[in-house]
Design goal:
Elements (H helix, E strand, L loop, with lengths): L3 E12 L2 E12 L3 E5 L6 H9 L6 E8 L2 E2 L3 H5 L2 E4 L11 H11 L6 H10 L15 H13 L5 E5 L7 H16 L3 E6 L2 H4 L4 E6 L3 E8 L7 E6 L2
Parallel strand pairs: 3-8, 3-9, 6-7, 7-8
Antiparallel strand pairs: 1-2, 1-4, 2-11, 4-5, 9-10, 10-11
Helix pairs in contact: 3-4, 4-5
């Protein structure tokens, strides 16, 4: 996998008069996992969506470098960033395989049908790829989100509440997915309010206080990364 460095500098986000994120800075390099923790509504998901390019920040910059080359164009960034979150929806009338094929085609992603089938097998859906997603349980849909995020070996993996609705086997699958990304030399940002899940990270940032909350580093194990910033209640 390609080497990667992501630098987030003073990211802020407001929705009208409500400030959700304030002054977040983060640097991470190949092989690192950073957990973003906080209560419901604290801004974790918004932060990951900004990093993914799904939402524009109100302030600040994000610099993504792969193999010493800055990735600035949106089309190019889509090929090196994968995202899975609770609001990632699929077409219920299509099969799991058809959904992944469709989204890969829309994003012009270089993946074969065999690659899609392998991604379904990897998340425990190998025998259910031809079933309509409409008959899937919530846990199976969550596994499908993981398949969507991991069907390409992208150097930046963004996981928002990845263990949501999963059984114990599924929770182990999330841990294995993160460890594979780490072993390949990728970066993972993990948004969670589960303390055990947060321990999958090398470092964690959390929101403290009340209305105007400040990030503090909880865990620091190796690496040059810096984590700071703040979240406004929302």
């Amino acid at each position: 996998m390609s080497s990667i460095r992501i630098a987030v500098e003073n990211i802020g986000k407001s929705f009208g008069a409500r400030r959700v994120l304030r002054g977040i800075s983060l640097e991470a390099v190949s092989g690192e996992v950073v957990a973003v923790t906080g209560a419901n509504g604290s801004g974790k998901s918004t932060f990951l969506k900004i990093v993914a390019g799904l939402i524009r920040p109100s302030s600040g910059t994000i610099t993504l470098t792969v193999d010493d080359r800055e990735i600035a164009e949106p089309d190019a960034r889509r090929r090196v960033v994968s995202y899975a979150g609770p609001d990632l929806a699929f077409y219920p009338e299509l099969t799991a395989q058809e959904n992944l094929s469709f989204f890969a085609e829309v994003r012009t992603l270089p993946i074969t049908l065999a690659g899609i089938k392998n991604s379904l097998v990897a998340v425990g859906l190998g025998g259910r790829g031809d079933d309509p997603v409409g008959v899937y349980s919530s846990g199976m849909r969550q596994r499908l989100r993981l398949a969507f995020a991991t069907m390409l070996d992208t150097p930046l993996l963004l996981l928002d509440e990845p263990s949501l609705a999963l059984d114990k086997e599924g929770v182990r699958l999330v841990a294995q997915t993160i460890e594979r990304q780490r072993a390949k030399g990728g970066v993972t940002l993990l948004a969670t309010n589960d303390p055990e899940e947060a321990e999958l990270g090398d470092r964690a940032i959390t929101a403290n206080g009340a209305r105007s909350q400040t990030f503090s580093t909880l865990i620091a194990v190796g690496g040059p990364a810096l984590v700071s910033g703040g979240i406004g209640k929302g």
